[in-house]
């Protein structure tokens, strides 16, 4: 399994993924924490998928959500589930929306990219950040590659070393707020939370 297979895989399994996606909102404590730090309610959801439960929860919290996904079949579902929110069919890699957001999410999405592509994402995050923008993403607990399954299809995962993520955030202007590897309160997800301080000179 290669990272290049991710988009076509999610194109095929979008509805199966949406049916099987855990909707207990185990992510809620992290989402609430991120919102508490965010300076506003304008949200960029990278790899938004069908929009439930995360984008729906944020919309219910009076957020203005822009969902971005490279799989068009996922965006069909996103639009069905959140007709009032904006959906953008685009690859998160090299994204250039020409605007900034108060909260940038890459929940269970950036870790499908190769290590090099993940490194490149931090410039993309910074390009869409304003002072005090909050960044939240998930990774693996340690550097390495792995495979998982989505609706019976094999998918690629990769992670950098936590210290490398810290260095990339610092270089791109983000201060770490928290990192909890394999958080037992979040179904074992390794979660990062950071806030933009501005570009370094």
From TrEMBL:
Residues 43-131 form the Methyltransferase domain. One of its GO terms (molecular function) is methyltransferase activity. Coiled coil: none annotated. InterPro entries: Methyltransf_25 (IPR041698). GO terms for biological process: methylation. Pfam families: Methyltransf_25. Keywords: Methyltransferase, Transferase. This is Class I SAM-dependent methyltransferase. It comes from Maritimibacter dapengensis.
